Amino acid sequence: MSLNYKDIDYEKIWQDYMECKKGYARERAFNDNVEREFWKGLSQRYDDKPTLYDYSKEVYSFIKNLIDTNKSLIEIGPGTGKFTLPLSEQCSNITAIDFSGHMLKVLMDKAKMLGINNITPIEGKWEDLQVSGADYILSVNSLYRIWNIKTALKKMNMVAKEKVIIVRTIQKPVFNDLYLKLGLEDKTCLDYIYLPNILHSLNICADVKFIGVQCEVEFDSKESIYDNIKKEIGYIPDKNIIDNYINENFKKSNEKYIFLHKTKVEIIYWKTTK
What number of other Cβ atoms are within 10 A of residue 1's Cβ? Predict the structure, then answer.
């Protein structure tokens, strides 16, 4: 018996992936208080290290070109405003919806300092809020905790008058390539595959763009590299193999070990249909 594509329940696969999370990752996925505390602790130092906006201007430029000037925007999960603040220059107004009030406070403090007054913060979950329409909706790496993802995507399609833009960095461990060489399971997060298929099941044929990105990850010593590997896979493999991998893939600068982490960013976008 052949499998019919239409019989595949990608939302169920999405939910199964969430269910498979373990430890702290699972707590963050299903416990609002744990997730809220995570972002509270991170909010004041979130901007200390480069994030997607900082190390890939190509991604920002692509998003910016999808949004016409003097249009209204809802951003789901704006965080500290890495994308929000520059987009405020071309948008008539932005509604910034974030689960973390602490991240929103950092965003609004920055907006005040820059004299930006067209951003309205709303604390809460996209799936729970009643919001009025906007011309565009943007989500950058912010849908990962939504259980009823179909309903959330339907809502985005209904609320956006013109276009929805979803950005998802393909998440994988820094040393995923090493783990594959060791014969271990590929730990790449596959939700970037599920989203376009879930949209297809809703009769939404979205455009998909992939952009390669890379960022430097810094380690103080070989021991800190070993510790990172042990934390991710539970043990330290043959150190000779790791040392060879370090020699081939790291550069040393000021006594620190620098790894160039490469992945891709998926940009899913579509003109809305009612």
Answer: 3
Residue 135 has what DSSP assignment?
E
Q: Which residues of 20-52 are buried (b: 16+ CB within 10 A; e: fewer)?
A: eeeeeeeebbeeeeebeeebeebbeebeeeebb
pLDDT for the residue 1: 58
Q: Which residues of 132-150 are buried (b: 16+ CB within 10 A; e: fewer)?
A: eebbbbbbbebbbbbeebb
Helix, strand, coil share of the chain (percent; to 5)? 45, 25, 30
Q: What is the tens place of the pLDDT at every residue in 168-180?
A: 999 999 999 999 9
Tell me, yes or no, whether 23 lies in a domain.
yes
> What sections of 182-221 are H helices per DSSP?
191-201
In eight-state DSSP terms, residue 49 is S
Low-confidence ranges of the chain (pLDDT < 50): none
100 residue type, one letter:
S
Q: What is the pLDDT, as a whole number, of residue 236?
A: 86
State the residue range of the domain holding 72: 5-214+263-271
Residue listed under structure tokens 């599920």: 194
Distances in Å between the Cα of 235 and the Cα atoms of 179, 188, 229, 230 are 12, 19, 7, 4
What's the full length of the chain, in residues?
Answer: 274
DSSP 6: G
Q: What pLDDT was estimated at residue 273?
A: 82
Domain count, the chain: 1
pLDDT computed for residue 240 by the predictor: 87
Residue 67 in domain: yes
In a domain, 250, yes or no: no
